[in-house]
Write a structure and sequence with these properties.
mainly alpha, single chain, elongated
Length: about 210
C-alpha cells in the first residue's frame, strides 16, 4: 500500500469514526481496507464502482454470516443503503456494521424494524409478516396447507405485538413488544449475526494489517 493511499485511508477513518459509534480509528481503517478489497473483487475494467452492490453484499451476508433468506438479505441491504442508490458506500458499510456487530438494543430495534418493513412505509403489515414467516419456516411435507399455519402464526404475533390493535406493527408496537421480550427482536427472521460469526469476522477484519 502506498504512503499516499495509507494517508487517505487514515484521514477517511478519522472522519468516519467521529460520526460512527462503536469503532475506534484503527478499527475504522481496517474496515475501509476490507471494503476496498471487497469492492476491488467486483471491479470490471472500464466500469466505475460506487460501492458494494446487492450481489456482492449478499455474498458477504451468506458466506460470512450464514444468512440464507433472500427476503431478509434484501432487507439488510436496504437498512445499510441509507441513501437508496443501490450501492453501499464505505461510510454506509461502517455505519451499518457498527449496529450489525456492536449495536445497542435501541440501535438494533431500529435496524430490525427497517429490515422487516419490506416496502418502507413505516409499518410491518400482515402481508409482510406472512411472507417473512413463510420464508423462515421449514415446510413439513405432511402439511396439507402450510399457508394456513403461517396465517395462524401471523395472528398470534399480532396479538402479542400489535399494541394499538390496528392490524399492523408500527415502530412503537415493535419497540414495546421487544422491550418486554427481547427474543422478539428477530421475530420475522434472522437479520443479526450470532456471537460466533461476529467474533470470526472481527478477528479477520481487525488483525494487524502488516500481517496480511
Amino acid at each position: 500500500m502506498s504512503a499516499m493511499n495509507r494517508k487517505l485511508i487514515q484521514a477517511l477513518a478519522e472522519t468516519i469514526c467521529k460520526q460512527v459509534k462503536h469503532f475506534n480509528k484503527t478499527e475504522a481503517e481496517c474496515l475501509i481496507r476490507l471494503f476496498n478489497g471487497l469492492v476491488g473483487d467486483v471491479t470490471r475494467p472500464g466500469r466505475v464502482v460506487h460501492g458494494l452492490d446487492r450481489g456482492a453484499f449478499r455474498n458477504i451476508l451468506h458466506n460470512t454470516f450464514g444468512m440464507t433468506d433472500d427476503m431478509i438479505m434484501d432487507g439488510v441491504f436496504r437498512a445499510f443503503d441509507k441513501d437508496n442508490d443501490s450501492f453501499i458506500s464505505v461510510k454506509e458499510w461502517i455505519e451499518g456494521l457498527s449496529v450489525f456487530l456492536r449495536g445497542t438494543l435501541d440501535e438494533k430495534l431500529k435496524y430490525c424494524f427497517n429490515v422487516y418493513d419490506l416496502n418502507g412505509d413505516g409499518y410491518i403489515s400482515r402481508e409482510e409478516m406472512f411472507h417473512m414467516l413463510k420464508n423462515s419456516l421449514t415446510r413439513q411435507p405432511t402439511e396439507e396447507d402450510p399457508d394456513e399455519g403461517v396465517k395462524d402464526l401471523v395472528e398470534i404475533t399480532l396479538k402479542m405485538m400489535d399494541h394499538d390493535h390496528d392490524g399492523r406493527l408500527s415502530y412503537a408496537d415493535f419497540e414495546k413488544a421487544v422491550r418486554e421480550e427481547n427474543l422478539l427482536l428477530e421475530a420475522f427472521g434472522t437479520c443479526l449475526p450470532d456471537a460466533k460469526s461476529t467474533l470470526v469476522f472481527e478477528q479477520h477484519a481487525f488483525q494487524d494489517p502488516l500481517e496480511h
